[in-house]
Amino acid sequence: MVTKRRGDPLWARLLLIFGAVLVVLSGGTLVAAHTVINRASTAFTQGSLLEGDAAAQDGASGNNIDGAVNLLLVGIDARPPGSSETGVLSDTIIILHIPETHDQAYLISIPRDWLVEVPAYEKAGFPGGSYKINSAFSYGYNVQGSELEKRASGMTLLSTTLNKVTGIRFNGAAIIDFSGFASVIHALGGVDMCVDETAESAHLGVDADGKLVQGWHSEAAGIQLPPGVTPFVHEKGCRKMSATEALDYARIRKSLSDGDYGRQRHQQQLIKAIVKQATTRGVLTDLGKLNNLVKAAGDAFVLDTGGIPPADFLFTLKGVAANDLTLIKTNAGNVNTVIVDGIAYEDLDDKSLAMLDAAEAGTLGTFLIENPQFIARSS
């Protein structure tokens, strides 16, 4: 069941979770901050995204959430009207893991091509089978109902699949489409990003006058741009990126030397850049900017907090700041391709599976001390 509300983008939610308290407690504006939180809590699109074993039991009866916290974040790419490809793909799958100490946060990117057993989903008439993990969202999405109901069903099958293969249960979940990223970054006035290798865009072009032109990507034919427009190239180096540039950079895969692992890293870096920008005093101490940020993405996402009040998340994670976000890569960032019936999949090695087991068991910090190769560059 999905309830339609307005406002409060996912990254505004991350702003509140990861940074607001650190400033408002010292700045004497806690009451004002709670006003923004409460306003946001009654403004966003809410849905029941987690069902069955995938959903953790409610752990909050007061101000503090007991134990480790796992949130499932999914970025979707809806194909443009009139394109030769249809449907909604879960191009970004991230587990946000906070240990029971509530003083650290880990972003674990799940490879979209990971070969897994997707369970049957009667609601969509899906019998189950071995597929790439991003197919789970697509198969769950294929139900009758509104767009919001379709996306909620897609998330249900994806979270159930992840629970079956990792054992991880989720305290909350969020779906955001790529326009949501752009609107929040625009509200922030851009973000600071470092391009670690020259990369050609798969979605963005530049015309003869140097102006950016939005295209779209076809798996079969590559980037699709108007005549006279050439693909935009991200040159190596650090700079302030606009919403259009930052979002495009975080979506590139095929022109990177490490393919999807590079894209995962850049998506994680973008999340961290958004949180860092959103938690600066220039934003946190300006209620006008905070309100603009809360309203930025509008209808771009669906959020399920598992029945836990947003203010409880805020209180529980008050010790986590942007610099406490640790970026994690599966397979230590090395491509591990397997071919099944002529189709290329990504396989997770035993160490990666042990890393996910550690996240489920609440011992991820210890695992990373012993296996630092799983920590990705943060910039």
UniProtKB/TrEMBL annotation:
Q: Which Pfam families match?
A: LytR_cpsA_psr
Residues annotated as coiled-coil are none
Query: Where is the Cell envelope-related transcriptional attenuator domain positioned along the sequence?
Result: 90-278
InterPro entries in the cross-refs: LytR/CpsA/Psr_CW_biosynth, LytR_CpsA_psr
The family assignment reads: Belongs to the LytR/CpsA/Psr (LCP) family.
Q: Which PANTHER family match?
A: POLYISOPRENYL-TEICHOIC ACID--PEPTIDOGLYCAN TEICHOIC ACID TRANSFERASE TAGU (PTHR33392)
Which protein are we looking at?
LCP family protein required for cell wall assembly
Naturally occurring in which organism (per UniProt): Catenuloplanes atrovinosus
Classification from the root reads: Bacteria, Bacillati, Actinomycetota, Actinomycetes, Micromonosporales
